Structures are given as structure tokens and as C-alpha cells.
Amino acid sequence: MPGHPVPYITQWSAEQVPRLRVVARGQGIGYADERPYDRDTGGVLWTRVPCLPGKGRPEFGMVHALRQLRAMRELLCQVCGQPSDRDANGVLWLLGEDPGDPALRTTGLTTAHPPLCMPCALKSVRVCPHLRERYVALRARTFEPVGVRGALYRPGHPAPTVADVTGVAFGDPRIHWMRAGQLLMRLNEFTITRLEPATLHEPAG
Question: Based on the structure, what is the number of domains in the chain?
């Protein structure tokens, strides 16, 4: 998006994931040269990726694993990296969903997208082609990390091989075979809201 800021969680071309040898370890996988910071506090293996924002070209559509993780954990805006918007109704999330989707009328919506601040939410629906077609803004009052999305491995010879790219919940035994790239957040209680200013075009629903 020429002329627009690069989102905080976007990966840059200089941040290429290094070739790492994945090996079987215990009841799952690990890196042959594994380091303490390769796993989170729950023991989940994460993609090891350099952190060099601004170096090279932005790779829109590619998410930097560690910045996404930080934005989710600290409730930072996925676009500017500053604190996300919060009011009495909760934290602001912006999803590229159909406002008429029945899933939005229930509880327990899971997303890999971190929250946003209001200025970045307003800008996003103007400049993002996908969000210009459809979006829904939510205020989440309660939420919790529930799993990860990434590469799911299976046993193989001479080394484990990637079986799928998917999401796996915490507590699922398959999580020991995951190389995580994004944290998944479950929005337990949320309400659909409108972005301000009120003059911004909103979808019906």
C-alpha cells in the first residue's frame, strides 16, 4: 500500500525465516540447535525469525511471528504497535467478516488478528481492499489465548515432516508437533460496534 504505513505485524524481506533442522524430541518436535527462547512459557515451539522491521521490502500478507505474539499478549495495535483502543465495552478488534454472519451473534469467536487503536482502524477500512468489501468492528470484554496457528508436523524419517498449516488448541496433544507462527485469541464476550467518526461508511447489520 504505497504511501501508507506498514503494519507493525507485517514481515519484511530482511526477516527471512532461517533454515532450521527440525527433529523429533520427546513427544513432539524441536530444533536441532534449540535455544531457550525458541519456546514460550507453555513449552510451545515458535518459528525462529529475525526482528529487522523496516529492512528491505514489506511483505504484505506475511505475519512476523514474534511481533504478532507481542501484539496479542500486550494488546497492541497490529498496525502501529501502540496500545489498542479500549473503552467501557472492551478492546477494539476489526475483522474482515460479513456483518451478517450468525457466528457474530454468539460467543466464542477465535481470531489470529491482534486488536487495533481507533485511528488505525479508521485508516484500515479506507485503504485495505479486503476490508473495503466487508468488515465488522467488535468490542471484546473478555478474551483469552486459546492456541496457536502454524506448521503441524508428523513423524517421519529421517526427520519429522510438515503435515498441514493449521490451528491447534492448547491442551491438544498435537501442539507438541507444532511450529507456531501466530497466537490465537478467543473473544468470549463481545458486541458489534461502530467505528468513529459516525460519518464513516458502515456496513448494514
Answer: 1
